């Protein structure tokens, strides 16, 4: 055996990779080492060449075997045993390594060429020709239009259930003279009159022929008169029947029966959703068959099994990665929390409200199931006739009362002392009061008769009853309005609407200072010294104080005792303030939203905002505090509805709901007695959402 040593004397003899077992059976000779191809030492099945070691005195013979499959390799024993001479070892052997031909599995030629390539000029010329052909393709011989066959869509069958068609057979016996008289009734009537005249004249002239003619005419006239009497009798009978049917349809009892039947149908249709709204258990329809019920149960069980299986797999993966020493702590039961969400129950909409913008909403103070909704555009260019509707939970498909308005409705509110009175403010500055108890749609009071009526859009209305500290005359309920003409007005409802101004909102002067070496700024000429009022809200405990939001982005704190100056001015918004709202629990805090995409939380003793919430880059139209929690409030911007919970996060809302991209959310309102939210949009829909898994905090301080 040969051994190879390096310069340091270490044994570096390479070990063979293959050891032949003399006791093993000789495998089948492969095609690679066929007898016809294995005569030379450099066959295609393997490659062998000598290596000359120059570092030591020993030499070793080495062979390299290559093959595609080791099971097909066979080593010939006669080659292993042969001895190489010194000449063979010193002989120079040339080895050539080559690559096989490349096999392309996927060849996608590029559609982009470099401007420095050889074909760049040709490609640019071809593209130019194609552009010219596209421009001049009408009437060009090089452009041809061809038709192609497409796959036909699968046919769909749709079944519709309709009322049963009732068919009746009616028959009338008619004689030949009835047919004759019916077709010639227009000719017989004037002829009978003329013949009667001729008959009278013929009696004065005694002529036999004329007597015979008169006798024939009189007989024919008798037949015609009988037919006319029968037709008149049938007409009277038909008229009586028609009057009787009209009397039934217009009767009060029939109208009341229809009203009750409508209520029953609405209750059957919306029972599950109304039960969810009132937080009652949902009743199962007894008409559902046992097969359908079994199918529903099977589907629920399958979903539960799939959920349990996925949960079990996750637990097994966690156990495989966690140290067993701490598994005892993790095996304790943990309550699974479900994230809060909004589920839509139904929408208040009908053909009259489609395409109209929902501008305001208000609950009735006595009946919590009665909702008033105002429809009117906010922009001057989109103005058209407005609408005020009273919706009931008992019929979500059609309003109970509909009041047509000459201008767009911008604000409305129900009275507290007289819940049947609904005040409506319009874009032209008019305020009207309707009696919803009456079936007539005529306004009982209108501010057009007052000389102090608003000259700009009425952006907000609210009925207010002053505290007991005021005089007896001031304890009566007042209607407060704010308008774009810069006036906050108090209206007294009597035989007519009389008003006095609580505050004339003055514009704030510009506080920009001149820079060094800058010329003195010229004073701006104002069209009006009053700032447009956008919103207001009275303090929940002391109604003598109130907040006013303006178009300048300022919020003023005012008092009913002073009508010339503000108590405080809060600066922070860069656009018009659309809504201000005191917190009903923590009465030192209030919220405001603006066109500058932000919502701000204020303390009445600080002129700068405490927190600013800005989750989107759209206008925030409306906000409202939750009536059940000090931390929760809702906001609507043009793209989505947001529910914020300050006890959970002050950075992101806990619930977001995006609507139809074609519609913009405009107003929001919490339900009084349930965990539901109402949202109005620019398409005339008022959507009712259920707040799910939103826990209210017991704290009363922010």
From TrEMBL:
The gene is Wdr78. This is Dynein axonemal intermediate chain 4. It holds the Pfam family WD40. SUPFAM superfamilies: WD40 repeat-like. Residues 1-23, 191-219 are annotated as: Disordered. The keyword Repeat applies. WD repeats lie at residues 570-612, 613-647. The keyword Cytoplasm applies.
């Amino acid at each position: 055996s040969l051994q190879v040593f390096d310069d340091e004397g270490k044994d570096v003899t390479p070990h063979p990779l293959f050891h032949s077992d003399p006791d093993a059976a000789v495998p089948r000779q492969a095609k690679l080492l066929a007898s016809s191809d294995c005569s030379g030492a450099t066959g295609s099945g393997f490659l062998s060449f000598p290596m000359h070691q120059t570092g030591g005195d020993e030499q070793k013979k080495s062979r390299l075997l290559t093959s595609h499959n080791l099971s097909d390799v066979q080593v010939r024993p006669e080659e292993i045993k042969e001895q190489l001479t010194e000449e063979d070892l010193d002989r120079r052997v040339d080895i050539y390594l080559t690559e096989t031909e490349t096999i392309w599995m996927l060849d996608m030629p590029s559609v982009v060429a470099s401007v420095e390539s050889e074909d760049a000029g040709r490609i640019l010329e071809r593209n130019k020709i194609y552009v010219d052909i596209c421009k001049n393709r009408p009437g060009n011989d090089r452009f041809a239009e061809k038709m192609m066959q497409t796959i036909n869509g699968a046919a769909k069958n749709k079944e519709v259930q309709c009322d049963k068609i009732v068919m009746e057979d009616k028959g009338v016996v008619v004689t030949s003279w009835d047919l004759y008289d019916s077709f010639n009734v227009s000719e017989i009537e004037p002829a009978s009159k003329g013949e009667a005249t001729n008959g009278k004249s013929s009696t004065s002239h005694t002529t036999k022929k004329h007597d015979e003619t008169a006798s024939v005419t009189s007989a024919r006239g008798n037949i015609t008169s009988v037919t006319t009497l029968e037709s008149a009798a049938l007409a009277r009978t038909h008229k009586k029947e028609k009057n009787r049917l009209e009397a039934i349809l217009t009767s009060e009892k029939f109208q009341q029966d229809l009203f009750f039947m409508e209520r029953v149908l609405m209750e059957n249709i919306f029972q599950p959703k109304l039960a969810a709204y009132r937080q009652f258990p949902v009743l199962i329809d007894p008409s559902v068959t046992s097969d359908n019920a079994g199918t529903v149960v099977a589907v629920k069980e399958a979903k539960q099994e799939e959920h349990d299986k996925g949960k079990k797999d996750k637990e097994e993966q966690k156990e495989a990665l966690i140290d067993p020493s701490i598994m005892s702590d993790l095996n304790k039961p943990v309550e699974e929390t479900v994230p809060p969400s909004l589920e839509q129950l139904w929408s208040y909409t009908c053909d009259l409200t489609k395409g109209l913008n929902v501008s305001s909403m208000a609950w009735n103070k006595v009946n919590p199931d009665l909702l008033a909704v105002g429809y009117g555009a906010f922009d001057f260019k989109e103005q058209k006739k407005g609408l005020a509707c009273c919706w009931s939970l008992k019929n979500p498909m059609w309003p109970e009362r509909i009041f047509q308005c000459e201008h767009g409705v911008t604000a409305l509110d129900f009275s507290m002392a007289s819940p049947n009175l609904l005040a409506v403010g319009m874009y032209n500055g008019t305020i009207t009061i309707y009696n919803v108890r009456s079936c007539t749609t005529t306004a009982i009071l209108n501010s057009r008769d007052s000389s102090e009526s608003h000259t700009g859009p009425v952006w907000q209305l609210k009925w207010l009853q002053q505290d007991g500290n005021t005089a007896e005359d001031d304890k009566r309920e007042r209607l407060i309005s704010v308008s774009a003409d810069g006036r906050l007005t108090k209206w007294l409802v009597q035989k007519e609407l009389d008003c006095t101004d609580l505050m004339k909102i003055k514009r704030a002067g510009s506080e920009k200072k001149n820079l060094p070496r800058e010329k003195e700024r010229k004073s701006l000429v104002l069209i009006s010294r009053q700032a447009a009022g956008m919103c207001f809200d009275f303090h929940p405990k002391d109604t003598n104080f109130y907040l006013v939001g303006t178009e300048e982005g300022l919020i003023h704190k005012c008092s009913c005792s002073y009508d010339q100056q503000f108590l405080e001015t809060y600066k922070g918004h860069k656009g018009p303030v659309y809504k201000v709202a005191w917190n009903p629990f923590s009465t030192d805090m209030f919220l405001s939203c603006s066109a500058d995409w932000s919502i701000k939380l204020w303390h009445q003793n600080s002129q700068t905002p405490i927190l600013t919430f800005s989750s989107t880059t759209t206008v925030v139209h409306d906000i409202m505090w939750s009536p059940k929690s000090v931390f929760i409030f809702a906001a609507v911007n043009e793209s989505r509805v947001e529910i914020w919970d300050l006890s959970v996060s002050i950075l992101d809302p806990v619930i977001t709901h995006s609507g139809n991209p074609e519609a913009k959310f405009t107003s929001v309102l919490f339900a009084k007695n349930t965990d539901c939210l109402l949202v109005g949009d620019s398409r005339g829909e008022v959507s009712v959402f259920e707040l799910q898994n939103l826990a209210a905090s017991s704290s009363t301080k922010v």
